[in-house]
């Protein structure tokens, strides 16, 4: 018998991780629905079932708060409250939302959702129109983006801010070491980490960093999820979140055109976000976009791959500088193909520890899109080929060593399978 193809195996992962309304990232380590995971999952699911991909996003936005935020975790009531920490009892979302189901966290994650919604529509416009997919989702997407531009402009510069490393999507990046050092950690004896039940401690954040994450999350919860920057010891203007919002607004213009709304405000928002990124964060000396500490004004994380992800922004005037950084010694993208999550030449680079160096498939997908957007078709093909080969060799792992391709983290990881499935289809 012929072995299943890569695409068939990827489809199998997505089907196995489907829970009736949404997809878990990994059955053991992440047994609930995660926000930006679901956006990437929809990109792959649209090649399996466009209706299911639409349902993935609809399920997530069904948990949207009245202030517009899309919570980074939607808890599955069928899963044990002890299966993941911090669980629903920690976040107490009902105290703010007045709604006991679904229970959610109060943090957010990067806004890939409008991009996923538009690509999901394109996979099967007839089904989407028959179900009213975009007309129903569009006002929710607008409210989500409004929350980010109004409530999360922490520095008053037009950039999107985050109040916890988990909100960046790049939880354990060395970029956050500076502001995190100011946060007094909750002692490890006062909480039980569930991630270490399913993953090696050498691949996960340290107890010290996890204690700081818990402190920040508890402080945010106890403030009633206030977004006033003075309430947060960690407040950062993030290039990845801002860039993805710009790309999402570009998708919103297409969605608006499809449903008969005015695309003009979305196009103007792309222009505004692009200008804010370049004017406020771009560093020509290093050819990258560092994050910025709202409290100190210090630039953070020159070595993070987040600094080159703004290639996804249409019409970015500094794209050539980012391409030079991507192909230079710090990332060696033309040579390796796999995008290291942190500067290969930095002493903090780690091939296997969560977000401190390993390559992630969703970041590779974003870079492929950004490279094509700016005419680097050959380099996009190199990245695409490297991602496919890594999945073929290592399986659908959470992340891989960018130098050897060795797999790390969770197995049968949903967004890895989804991204691979999308890369196997013609763009």
UniProtKB/TrEMBL annotation:
UniProt entry tagged with the keyword Hydrolase: yes
Molecular-function GO term, any one: Glc3Man9GlcNAc2 oligosaccharide glucosidase activity
Keywords: Glycosidase, Hydrolase
UniProt record, GO biological process: oligosaccharide metabolic process; protein N-linked glycosylation
Ranges where the Mannosylglycerate hydrolase MGH1-like glycoside hydrolase domain occurs: 30-416
SUPFAM superfamilies cross-referenced by the UniProt entry: Six-hairpin glycosidases
Family membership noted in the UniProt record: Belongs to the glycosyl hydrolase 63 family.
Protein name: Mannosylglycerate hydrolase MGH1-like glycoside hydrolase domain-containing protein
